[in-house]
Amino acid sequence: MTAPEQDGLTPRIDTSRPHPARMYDWFLGGKDNYPVDEAMGRQMLAVEPGVPVMARVNRAFMHRATRWLAGQGVGQFLDIGTGIPTEPNLHQVAQHTAPAARVVYCDHDPIVLAHAEALLRGTPQGAVDYVQADARDVDAILEQAGKTLDFGQPVALSMIALLHFVSDEDGAYALVDRLVSVLAPGSYVVISHLTADFHPEAARKVDEMYRANTLTLAPRTRDRFAAFFEGLDIVEPGIVAAETWHPELGEPVPGQDDVVSAGYVAVARKG
C-alpha cells in the first residue's frame, strides 16, 4: 500500500462533537471513538435499540456484495466513504476470492487516515491504497485512484452508508453520476442507504438529534434511492432491505431474524 499523503501535517481529530463514522464504529463494538460519540450513540439506542444490529447487517451486506462481485470476476474496487477500518475489510473479502484484486479506499475523516496505513494491508499479488478526499471532490478521487486502478477496465464502485450524509442540495446525485460516467462497461455500483420507510418515527427522532449537532442526515425513500441507479441494470434481487440481499453468501448476523433493516441496498451493473 502507498502511504497516505498528509502534506507533512497531522490531521486534527475533532472530539468536541459526535462524528457518524466514529458512532458507527461504536455500534460495531470498536474502540476508535470518543465519549461524545458514545453519548449520542446511547441517545440513538434509547430511540431505536436495534441500531447496533442494523449496523452489523449493513456491514454484512458489504461483505456479501464484495464476495459476489469478486466471484463475478471483478478485480478492481473503489470504496468511497470507507469509515474506520473494521476487519474483515473490503479488500480482505475481495482478495480472499481474488488475490490479485486492486482496492482503493477513500475517506475524508482524519481518524480513518490515522489507521489506514496500519490496517489496510493486502496480498502480495494485489494492491491496496488510500485516498484522503471528500466524497464530493470527485476529480481528486479519480485522479488519485487512477494511480492504482485502471478505469478502462471494470471497477466496482462501493458507497456503503455514505450517501445519506450528502444532501440533494450538496450534490448527492451529481457525484454518483460523475463517478458512474467514468466507469467502463461491465463495472458495478454498490450502495447501501438509510431510509425512513421502515421506522418513520425513530428516523424522525434521529434526524432531530443530527440537526441538533449540526450533522447532515438525508434518509431517502425507495424511489429516491432508486434514482441513484438510473441508466444501470440492477441485479437480482433488486432494491431490498440489507439483510435480504443474497443472505446465502455470508455469515448470519446475530439477531438478524428479529430486526428489520434501516436501509435499502442494491447492486447494479453498467452495460
Automatic annotation (TrEMBL):
SUPFAM superfamilies: S-adenosyl-L-methionine-dependent methyltransferases. Pfam families: Methyltransf_19. GO terms for biological process: methylation. GO terms for molecular function: methyltransferase activity. Keywords: Methyltransferase, Transferase. CDD domains: AdoMet_MTases. This is SAM-dependent methyltransferase.
